[in-house]
Each structure stands twice: as structure tokens, then as C-alpha cells.
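Memo to structure team: turn this sequence into C-alpha cells by end of day. - J.P.
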Amino acid sequence: MKIARVVAHQLKTVHEDREVTRLGSSVFESGLISPEAMALTLRALKRFQRAVQAHAADETRVVATAALRDARNGEAFQAWVKAETGWSLEIISGLEEGRLIHRGIMSAEPGVSGRVLLVDLGGGSCEITLSEHKRIKETVSLPLGAVRLTEGFLTADPPAAEGLAQMRQLIGRELRRARRKITVERVSLVIATSGTAAALAEASAAVAKAGKASVKRLVHGPGVAPALLVRKLAARLAKMPLQERETMPGIGPRRAEIIIAGALVYAELLEHFALPGFRYSPLGLRDGILAQMLAEQDTRASSHVEFEHERWESVLATARRYGVDPRQAEPVRAHAIQLYRDLKTLHELPGDYEHWLAAAALLRDTGKFINHQGHHRHTQYIISSSEMYGYTPMQRTIVSAIARYQGKSRPGPEDRALRNIPTEEHRNVHRAVVLLRLAIALNQDRASDVLKVTAKIYPKRAYLEIRPGRTGAELELWSLRKEADYFREVFGRELFPTLA
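Reply from structure team:
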């Protein structure tokens, strides 16, 4: 847990706490979170909640990673947390986890520039991110968490040679998959985060301090773990019983149980990518979550522009992946945003809907990648299932629902597209759907120049005044009139489209 205060558009940490509950220790073996791990984690959350209340935090975000991504009873645990604390436990994907870790490091780690490789080895997964000039080039999430590997392969103490060999095979296979996506040429720095990296960095420093002069020269500063020392450590640890590992500097009783798997992943990764070593950073996922919360809340924060750029680039990449040309979709997006702003006193939508409406406008035709027939249904599935940086699963679901109802159908409370959206949010979705339908109606003839429109709101009427393009605006006028009934149903006003 980490609590921060916003001071002069920057974050200042006021309290932090940590408790290891091993929520995923049984998940990676049985697929289920054990009742004991649930209870222990819930007790930790309740203790954290008392600190949150004591510091009068205005906003709280609770995030879960690999353990709950894999757990078949994850929804039951989410419901339990909600009932006991009132907190909505959000399960993020591996790629979103990597993005948030990147944001946390880049927002606060000094002296980071050029091409940087970030590695975060947790209990259930390992996120590897290539960053260039503080922007993500590529991220992969691999099932190489220290707890997952320990539970799956290292059941004996010390581990059996067969289990070590099988684990190395899996690590090698996953790293080869990562290399197909990530190119490490010209990487100037490797930054590793989380507990395993901290333990290896401290243990490396202790080994170097006690070792020969040639080994001492490998360490260039605090928190640095050279590849040669990591390989030596991994080999030594694999031969030690638990009791001996516990006495190693930097490791301790809790980390000793899983350090062999973690050390081998780092050793194999550094060798596989021909990297000289890594530098440990205490920053990570919590810092990224806080940085994003600041970016979303404070438009004057330096991270806000970066966050908006990153989020929109992800939407553009998703559009291109499914055959949508962003240039062709741009007029619809522009009109949707204009209508959102011009009709603000009428629709009263929260500020986030401006971004979600723009994303829905750009992605509304992605379903044609699967089939032109019924493509609106396919669009809803693609958007809700796609990985888009900066969007939570719920936000993607809302965007997908806005894009879904652009044909003949209209949203109904029992529809699949609305099923996972809170009931109190349905009214907002309906209103955003209408705005997007009007923007599409204004762009019926793609060959014509973009029409200019002026909106005027009166107590019982709304006027959309269209200035015709070179090829006229009769088709657009007819399309807008078709939306008048739905407009009246949602907003309680008559819609009058007219030509200027």
C-alpha cells in the first residue's frame, strides 16, 4: 500500500506499508485461491483500510495481478472484498501491469533516458518492457513468477535436478517468445523491480564484498546486480537447503522459499538477452497506479499529457490492428467530441465520457474485421476484449457498449453489452450512444468534405444547424432526422436538424 498527497501537481508519499500474503500460492497449482490465503489477504486489506481512513484519502484504487487473473474463484474473492471493505478489487492484465510499472519508474526514477529495459518479476508473472525516450515500445507478460515456478517445479529441498531442468526449459521457451517481440540492441540500462530483484541486488553486493578483486570490480554502485554474479548466485542457491538460504544477506526467511526460481529467471534472462546486469529500483506498480491517478485527476500535472498520448496511441494501434484507417474515422470522432462539448448542458455526462466517446468513434468499425454482417456485435466483443493501455476492463466495456449500438438496435437493460456495466451507469451510456449516432449521421458521405455543424439548446428543442459541403448535405440531414425519435426518448427534447 502507498498513500500520497498531491503537492504542487506532484506526488508526495505520506505513508506506505507492505504485507506478503502469497495469495497465488495455491492458484498456480490448483487454479483456486485457498480460503486461508483469502482470509489472510482480507485481514491485510482491512488493516490497510484503517490507514487509508486515518489519512483521509480522497480516492483509493485496489489492484490485483497474476493470482487473480488465473484463479477460477477470483470473482468470489472480489465479492468478499467488496462486502467487507466496500472496495472494488480491480484485476488488471499482464500488459497493463507492465504499463503501470513503466509509468511508476519513468515518473520518479532519476537519470533514465534512451532505450531502457524494465523487468518486474512477481509471484505469478514476469513483465518485460522496452522503453525508448520514456515511452513504451513493447511489453510482454510471461508466466514466470517466482511463486508459480516454485510451486510447479521445486517441491524438494534443496530442489531436485529434474525439477530444475524442467523449469529451465520453460524459462528458455518463454524467453524465446519474448525475444520475438522485444529487441534489446542499444539498450543502455536494465531496471529491475520488486522483491526478488532487491534480494539479488543486495546478495550480489555481499558476494562481491566478500569475493576476489575481480568480482568486486563488477559492482558499479548500490542496487546493481551484474549478470556474472546473478548466475553465480543462482547456481549456489539451487544447491542450498532452505535453512541456509535464509541466512543469505538480503534474502531472509520469506524470500528464501522462492528465491531459487526468481534467481534462475533473472540469470537466464540476462544471458538470453546478452545483458550485463540490472539496477534495482524500489519503484513499481504502486507508484505507477498513483502516477496514473494523478494524471487522470490533475490536468496540470506533467504526467497528464504523457498519459493522454499513451492512451490515445493505444486506441489508434487497436484501430489499425483491425483494419480501420484512423484518417477515415477522424471526422466522426471530431463531430462526436464537438457534440459532447456543445451539448454539455443537455447530456451532463462526466468528463471521462469525452475520451470514451472519442475511442468508440474511432473503433466503431473494428467488427468488420470479423464479418460485415452483424459487425456492431463483433465491434463490442473486440473492444471489450482488446488490451488498450490506460483503460480498465470496465472502461473498455463502456466504450464497447457506446460503439455497439450504431445500427438499428438500441441498448436494453438485459443486453449482453450492458450486463457487466453498473445499472447507475446505463443512463450515461444511453446518452453517449445518441451523441455517437448523431456524429455518424453527420458523416454519411465520406467522399464529401467535412460538414460544419452548430448546436443550439432550448428548454423543449435542440437545433443542429448544418452548413452544406460541396456535395450538399441532404443525406446527412435525412440521417439526422431518423435519430430524432431516439433523441427525444433519451433527452426529452425535439431534435430539429436544419440547413444553414
